[in-house]
């Protein structure tokens, strides 16, 4: 018998114990901020219960859970602060991380030329194409990282050689990539994972859909980092 | 295999007693103390991930955990500023 199968029962037990304890503590809690902090412990219990399965599928389900959890905490904290602000009148509404938000675009008034780096002028398109194709063959997280490296290299090279990419173009491009990444997320979760359960006989097709969609999603998301410079 | 099992049980102990510490521990009225206490069950979750060999999940959890602490600290500071 595999060692992971021996580890399943105690892990699920510990996960349920922690979940029940923290939910009871939330039930007796009155303050908003304490409830929010205790929700973090409930998330620990959820992660442990998923991890008890011990397969690659469990790992692939933990990763979106973590990211969604972070987004939830950000949104709920923002709502909490706004709610407290609305109680007091005469204060202007601010964001949670307002010190870190850019107010206006920084401007560089002198030309920077990079004459030594010939690769940025002549071979940027070829190298990025090579990396994207290689990433598409790798699939999954590794493929996405390689692919995003290609996109990032292309965008940074275009920005340095300033081949007609304006700020408006970048904004449109950003929106388009975000939408594309969302569609790929839906493909990964809905077609990939639900397909495994509904049609187990055709698992190879759904495995390829999930891996390819994951590669495109990670690649497009990380490729957005290249936009921040312009 | 021995070290895997002992890592796993150390993770269980840290998770359960850390949760009890968050819920019933001393000075729990202070949100900062409660937030710092959460690091102990988080370390338990990390050890359990390590025992299960979930490499990507472990690395992402470490990164996300630090970001969550940042968000919570900002929220607590803002809330105390508003209530003062």
The total domain count of chain A is 2
Report strand % of chain A: under 5%
- If helices are DSSP runs of H or I spanning 4 or more residues, what is the number of helices of chain B? 4
Distance between the termini of chain B: 54 Å
Order of helices and strands of chain B: HHHH
Please, what is the oligomeric state? heterodimer
Unreliably modeled segments of chain A = none
Mean pLDDT of chain B: 90
- Structural domain count of chain B: 1
Shape designation of chain A = flat
Percent of residues in helices of chain A? over 70%
Organism (chain B): Methanothermococcus okinawensis
Protein name (chain B): DUF2107 domain-containing protein
InterPro entries (chain B): Prd_NiFe_hyd_3_EhaE
Pfam family, one (chain B): EhaE
Could you characterize what this model shows?
The complex is a heterodimer of chains A (230) and B (84). In chain A, 75% of the residues lie in helices and 0% in strands. Chain A is mainly α and 230 residues long. Chain A folds into two domains: 1-105; 117-230, no CATH class. By secondary structure, chain B is mostly helical. Chain B has one domain (2-83). Helix content of chain B is 86%, strand content 0%. Chain B has four helices and no strands. In chain B, α1 runs antiparallel to α3. The longest helix of chain B is centred in the last third of the chain and has 29 residues, at 55-83. The radius of gyration of chain B is 15 Å and the shape is flat. Chain A binds chain B through residues 3-4, 7, 10-11, 14, 17-18, 21-22, 24-25, 33-34, 36-38, 40-41, 44, 47-48, 51, 54, 58-59, 62-63, 66-67, 69-70, 73-74, 77, 80-81, 84-85, 88, 96-97, 141, and chain B through 1, 4-5, 8, 12, 15-16, 19-20, 22-23, 31, 34-35, 38, 41-42, 44-45, 48-49, 51-52, 54, 56-57, 60-61, 64, 67-68, 71-72, 74-76, 78-79, 82-83.
Q: In short, what is this structure?
A:
The complex is a heterodimer of chains A (230) and B (84). With 230 residues, chain A is mostly helical. Chain A contains eight helices and no strands.
């Amino acid at each position: 018998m595999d060692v992971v199968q021996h580890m399943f029962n105690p892990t699920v037990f510990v996960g349920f114990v922690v979940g029940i304890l923290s939910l009871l503590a939330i039930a007796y809690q009155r303050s908003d901020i304490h409830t929010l902090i205790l929700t973090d412990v409930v998330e620990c219990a959820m992660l442990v219960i998923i991890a008890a399965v011990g397969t690659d599928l469990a790992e692939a389900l933990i990763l979106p859970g973590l990211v969604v959890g972070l987004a939830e905490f950000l949104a709920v904290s923002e709502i909490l602060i706004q709610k407290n602000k609305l109680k007091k009148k005469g204060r202007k509404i601010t964001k949670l991380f307002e010190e870190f938000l850019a107010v206006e675009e920084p401007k560089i008034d002198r030309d920077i030329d990079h004459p030594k780096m010939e690769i940025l002028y002549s071979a940027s398109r070829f190298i990025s194409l090579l990396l994207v194709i290689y990433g598409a063959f790798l699939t999954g997280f590794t493929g996405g990282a390689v692919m995003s490296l290609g996109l990032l290299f292309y965008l940074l090279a275009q920005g340095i050689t300033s081949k007609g990419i304006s700020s408006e173009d970048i904004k449109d491009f950003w929106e388009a990539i975000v939408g594309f990444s969302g569609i790929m997320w839906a493909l990964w979760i809905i077609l990939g994972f639900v397909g495994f359960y509904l049609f187990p006989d055709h698992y190879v097709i759904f495995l390829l859909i999930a891996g390819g969609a994951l590669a495109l999603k990670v690649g497009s998301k990380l490729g957005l980092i290249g936009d921040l410079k312009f | 295999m021995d070290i895997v099992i002992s890592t796993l049980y150390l993770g269980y102990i840290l998770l359960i007693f850390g949760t009890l510490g968050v819920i019933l521990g001393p000075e729990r009225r202070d949100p900062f103390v409660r937030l710092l206490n959460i690091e102990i069950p988080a370390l338990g979750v990390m050890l359990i991930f390590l025992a299960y060999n979930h490499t990507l999940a472990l690395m992402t959890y470490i990164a996300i955990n630090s970001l969550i602490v940042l968000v919570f600290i900002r929220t607590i500071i803002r809330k105390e500023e508003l209530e003062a």
